[in-house]
Write a structure and sequence with these properties.
The chain is of the alpha+beta class. The protein has 10 helices and 7 strands. Helix 4 packs across helix 5 and helix 7 (189-209) runs antiparallel to helix 8 (216-233). This is Conjugal transfer protein.
Length: 305
């Protein structure tokens, strides 16, 4: 048949879909101090109760708290023509995170989670050759690699990463964990930039004292830091984000081959991707739907306006 011949010639048939996940309220993003303290107390309280085998039931009207925030969000993303997922779709994309690269029966997987939420993450997660992650579900299995970006060109305005990835002959999942930077404070991007600028100033003064020619990279860094300061002065939003590319394969050889192709392709664009062997499990769970960046996340974090 035509479909069979198409699959045979392409090896894999796939399409890209995009999901935007926004936490409507959490202790990570709330700007209301009273709300933060209340949620923090509830979080600690529930954890303490869980140690003794107790839990707090979810109120029937829990959704009412989020209605106003959801309306604001719906208006904000209306130009993207985005639509909210229904319950089954929500269940499926959350379950799909544990089935990457495997064949599955969609309706069966949804029914399993509907019968018990414990089935949501019911897969074997193991490692082969120390650092290659393998997922197993019944008689199906796949290998998976979480590949964070750690280098970008100084000017990324002309980089169309998603379009370039779509030219590859195999699927590459792209995950962004993004958080707006605090406007002020030690942990804000402005605070980090100020400290970096002071270190750079000291380096340049030492070079002047010894009549050493300034490196081009040092001079370029100085202008970049000044640019950040100007953008903050103009109240331009800044974000910190973790960008992870996810590839799967039927074997370790598949993963190796696809990583080499992807790495070579991105390198031509001035983008660096790392294997991150020691961080595979962390990246696997950090990129789960609903997770957010926090102050403990240090590695592979990028900043951008």
């Amino acid at each position: 048949s035509m479909v069979y011949n198409l699959k045979s010639s392409l090896r894999e048939v796939f399409e890209y879909k995009y999901y935007l996940v926004v936490p409507l309220k959490s202790i990570h993003v709330s700007v209301d101090l009273k709300s933060v303290l209340n949620q923090s107390y509830q979080t600690v309280r529930n954890k303490a109760l869980s140690y003794f085998g107790f839990g707090e039931a979810l109120p029937v009207n829990w959704y009412d708290k989020y209605k106003n925030q959801k309306e604001v969000l719906d208006n904000a993303v209306s130009l993207l023509e985005a639509r909210p997922l229904d319950t089954e779709e929500n269940i499926f994309i959350n379950r799909l995170q544990y089935l990457r690269g495997m064949e599955y029966e969609k309706d069966f997987e949804i029914e399993m989670v509907e019968s018990s939420i414990e089935n949501l993450d019911d897969v074997n997660v193991e490692f082969e050759h120390v650092n290659v992650m393998k997922l197993s579900n019944f008689d199906k299995a796949s290998y998976i690699a979480m590949l964070p970006l750690d280098k970008l060109p100084e000017n990324v305005s002309y980089i169309h990463l998603q379009e370039e990835i779509q030219t590859l002959p195999f699927p590459v999942e792209v995950s962004y964990l993004t958080q707006f930077s605090l406007p002020k404070g030690v942990f804000s991007l402005l605070g980090k930039a100020t400290r970096a600028r002071q270190r750079l100033k000291n380096t340049m003064e030492e070079a002047d004292e010894t009549d050493t020619v300034q490196k081009t990279s040092v001079i370029r860094s100085r202008f970049l830091l000044e640019d950040i300061q100007e953008r903050f002065d103009e109240d331009e939003p800044m974000v910190s984000y973790l960008n992870t590319l996810i590839i799967t394969g039927e074997s370790i050889e598949d993963i190796k081959s696809r990583f080499e192709i992807l790495s070579s392709h991105l390198n031509q664009m001035g983008i660096g991707v790392v294997r991150a062997n020691a961080d595979q499990l962390y990246l696997f769970y950090k990129n789960m739907i609903g997770n957010v960046l926090d102050t403990a996340d240090k590695n592979f974090i990028q900043s951008m306006t």
